[in-house]
Amino acid sequence: MFEQTEVKPPLIIGFLCEWAAQLDEYLNDDGTLAPLPNVHIIKIPCSGYVKPAWVEKSIQEGADGVWVCGCPMVDCHYREGNIFIRDRMTGERNPYLRLKGGRGGARGVDPHRVRGFWKAGVSGPELIQELKEFSEALVGHPIVLGPVKPVRRHDGPVLDSSPWNPTGPEPELSPP
Q1: Is residue 113 part of a domain?
Q2: Contact 67/41 with Cβ under 8 angstroms?
Q3: Sign of CA dihedral 125, 73, 70, 111
Q4: Starting at the edge strand that comes first in sequence, how are the strands of the sheet with 65-70 ordered?
Q5: 103 is in which domain, residue-wise?
Q6: I want to staple 58 with a disulfide (CB 3.0 to 4.6 A). Which of 63, 64, 86, 152 is the partner?
Q7: Consecutive H or E run containing 114
Q8: Burial of 122 (0-12, 13-18, 19+ CB in 10 A)
Q9: How many domains does the chain fold into?
Q10: With b meaning 16 or more CB within 10 Å and e meaning fewer, what string describes 99-119?
Q11: Residues 56-70: tens digit of each pLDDT
Q12: For residue 157, is it within any domain?
């Protein structure tokens, strides 16, 4: 009567500080986690290396969620890298992550699709449990896309042949 449709697990990109946790025994050769094949791990020297543009690009390219793991707030191996990325993810530090409804307006990243985890010496099972909970939260949260900006059509030339001068027309110089 009713067909059951299988829910596809959300694709998660995880940026993992190499000092915060060791997941080598759980990683497949392609960078996915063996217990959660929908999670792709990118190892970085410090969570502070993560650029907000990487998070935005990951979601634009099809990731359902992005996850950043770093050291605890007072114990970063590289001094303040984790504070920098946390503040960028919350919009308190430039370059900030453009969040939907915040500084990013309607075109920003849905805050439900981004998560940070700040602990030292995290065990593999604890980290996998955190990722499993994030994955389940993404399944229960609909993905909200921003409005698509319509492309304007015009019949005129692509480039205007007249020179543009922001200060106005050039003054005419009289001969000496």
Answers
A1: yes
A2: no
A3: positive
A4: 39-44, 12-17, 65-70, 114-118
A5: 12-140
A6: 63
A7: strand 114-118
A8: buried
A9: 1
A10: bbeeebeeebbbbbbbbbbbb
A11: 889 888 899 999 988
A12: no
Beta strands in 1-57 (DSSP E): 12-17, 39-44
Instruction: Report H helices in the chain.
Output: 52-60, 81-89, 124-140
Report helix, strand or coil for 66.
strand
pLDDT in tens, 68-85: 988 887 777 778 888 888
Q: Establish if 146 belongs to a structural domain.
A: no
Could you tell me the two tokens for 110? 């849905």
- The Cα–Cα gap between 67 and 115 comes to 5
By CB neighbour count within 10 A (0-12 exposed, 13-18 middle, 19+ buried), where does 176 fall? exposed
23 found inside a domain: yes
